[in-house]
Specification:
The chain is α/β, with parallel strands linked by helices. The chain contains 10 helices and 8 strands. The protein is about 30% helix and about 15% strand.
Length: about 300
């Protein structure tokens, strides 16, 4: 797995899916930089949520067949090193890591894709380095960076759409307890994060669980977000943005994602039918078609 150094000296790792990377390495596809088969060799830098090991993103349902994916392991996750300073896990401080990756790749601009909590980091990066982004894709985005709150009732309303599912009573009871502040059984509400609660979804839920509790605790620490400043900066963001929400996603409800889309001058909002928080798993073909068309 290739690595690079953050400004504070922390060694960070990233995964490459698709065409060969900018260091001359290659994987299952070829490492040519001049292609005539319709594929764009420029990479898409991908930021995971969590913070969790980026392996849960996989190759985003086959998006790597269209664009090379450079998937960052945030510090303290996956194969990236644990930093000496735990306060460096804070979202705003991670912006420097993304910029260091861009520099390492030798690119004047990057197309940037982020999932879930990683979207907060992507938006903070876009606010600080707007000229460094060609296109911005936010998938089932976290929106705390914009100061948008999601009420418990909003989540319950969306969850009730799954009322006919056999797992619904137990999962909804757990959701009620969490939104009411009396419960913390996050595993029990797992079915609400997927369009289909099958064996693949259950296995994926385990793989996407954050393992570094310090990284999670410090990510949104005081000072991590500056909503007014971020919204003001994004109001002048010149690059196209895609905000993709899952129809059933209680974590990032479509209504809230639509509100976030209003922060960008040039934003497309897409709600993927039948999808939860991981739309590339629920309908890979639809997801890839949507995102690839936007990126190309």
């Amino acid at each position: 797995m290739p690595t690079f150094f953050a400004p504070d000296g922390t060694r960070l790792a990233y995964r490459v899916h698709g065409i060969g990377d900018h260091n001359g390495n290659s994987n299952s596809r070829d490492d040519s930089h001049d292609r005539d088969d319709g594929h764009d060799d420029a990479p898409v830098v991908c930021i995971p949520g969590g913070p969790a090991d980026s392996r849960y993103l996989g190759d985003l349902g086959g998006l790597s067949a269209h664009r090379r994916l450079v998937v960052l392991d945030l510090r303290g996750t996956g194969r990236s090193a644990v930093p000496d300073d735990t306060s460096s896990y804070r979202c705003d401080r991670l912006v420097a890591d993304v910029e260091a990756l861009r520099t390492h790749l030798g690119l004047p601009r990057i197309d940037l894709l982020a999932h879930s909590a990683g979207a907060n980091l992507a938006m903070r990066y876009a606010a600080r380095h707007p000229k460094r982004i060609g296109r911005l894709a936010l998938i089932a985005p976290g929106i705390r960076a914009l100061g948008i709150t999601i009420s418990g009732e909003d989540r319950r309303e969306l969850a009730r759409l799954r009322g006919a599912e056999p797992w619904f009573p137990a999962a909804f009871a757990a959701l009620e307890a969490i939104t009411g502040g009396t419960g913390s059984d996050w595993e029990a509400i797992g079915p609400f994060f997927y369009g289909r609660w099958d064996a693949a979804a259950q296995q994926h839920l385990m793989a996407s669980r954050p393992e570094n509790e310090e990284a999670v605790a410090h990510f949104a620490a005081e000072g991590a977000f500056a909503p007014d400043a971020t919204r003001a900066a994004l109001a002048g963001f010149g690059a196209p943005a895609l905000l993709l929400a899952g129809e059933f996603d209680v974590n990032s409800p479509p209504r809230s994602v639509a509100e976030a889309a209003g922060s960008f001058p040039d934003a497309a909002l897409v709600v993927q039918p039948g999808a939860g928080h991981y739309p590339w798993l629920d309908d890979a073909d639809r997801f890839v078609a949507t995102v690839a068309a936007f990126l190309e």
